[in-house]
Amino acid sequence: MLLGAITELWVDYLTRVEALRVSIGLEAYAQRDPLVQYKTKASDLYQQLLEDIRGQVINRVFAYQPRRIEINPVEVAETAAAAPVAEQSSDGDASGAKKRKRRRH
Question: pTM (2 decimals)?
Answer without folding.
Answer: 0.55
